[in-house]
Amino acid sequence: MLGTKLDKLTKTRRSELPQLLDRARWKIIGREADKGLLFKCFIYLILLDAAYIYLKPVFHMLATMLKNPGDLLDPSVKWFPNTLYLGNLQEAWEWLKYPKALGISLTLSLSVAVLQTISCAVTGYAFARLKIPFKRLLFGCLLLTFIVPMQVTILPNIIYARELGMLNTIYPIIVPAFFGLGLKGALFVIIYRQFFSTQPKELEEAARIDGAGVFKIFYKVMMPLARPAILVVFLFSFVWTWNDFYLPSMYLSDIETAPLSMGISRIASALRQQAEVYGPSVTDEAIRMATTFLMIIPPMLLYLFTQRWFIEGVERTGLVE
């Protein structure tokens, strides 16, 4: 009797074995390519690698700038200093003349971002919805700005700026933004064009029936719908201008207090000259890290408060699928 029950149990388990193997295989491999455990492990591995590559320099910057000279000389102190030391931040603050440099960077970045957001919206709407002569040719010329590098046109622009008395001022950087010129302007026009092209034409037709003209349709109907694109363009332009080193170094090389994007190179140059005279100091690297921290903290705070709208805007403007 007992032997019969054992035989039945064995047969039952043998019959269930293929099903269990199938379940285990589908759980590991997945019925679709992106559903299995192996694929998820691979994705997590890639994400961890990417996070390590991007976050390690940030952690190194924070750890180095908070070390005192004793911790910097101690090889056993790598990531966590024994005491939090703010002297490097204070020194970088004074070298940069931080309040004034921050004001210049904010003025420059906000002015360029606001002007490019408006001018590129008008141009993008015209390319997307209006019937204008030679539209394809003009759009081809716009795409050419991706090919012509900024370095090719910088010398004539510097000469014109000097003749107009605008050298060593921020106007040579701000004025072109009003016309949406350059690589940034072309990219933002394409973002707006892509967004306006996806809006239903019935909205404009209904506004025309109510007697609205082109400008009224643009400002009253299309611009309120374009908030995601406006936010994306504004943030892209702000961060791009904030981090830009090339144009300020061309137009603002002789001013006493430079934008923060030039501060790192100026402090690095000053530390190098100081090392040549007095020898290298153990705090040089920590001061450089503190300078970098002071430069990136404003855009990081901006992104922290606008992250949700920024991601939503990127998705709705078609920049990512």
UniProtKB/TrEMBL annotation:
Topology with respect to the bilayer: Multi-pass membrane protein
Transport found in the keyword field: yes
Cell division among keywords: no
Gene3D superfamilies: MetI-like (1.10.3720.10)
Domain ABC transmembrane type-1 intervals: 102-306
One cellular-component annotation, GO: plasma membrane
Ranges annotated as spanning the membrane: 37-55, 101-125, 137-158, 170-192, 225-242, 286-306
GO biological process, one term: transmembrane transport
Primary location class: membrane
Location relative to the cell: Cell membrane
Key words, A-Z: Cell membrane, Membrane, Transmembrane, Transmembrane helix, Transport
PANTHER family per UniProt: ABC TRANSPORTER PERMEASE PROTEIN MG189-RELATED-RELATED, ABC TRANSPORTER PERMEASE PROTEIN YESQ-RELATED
UniProt family annotation: Belongs to the binding-protein-dependent transport system permease family.
The protein's name: Binding-protein-dependent transport systems inner membrane component
Organism of provenance: Paenibacillus mucilaginosus 3016
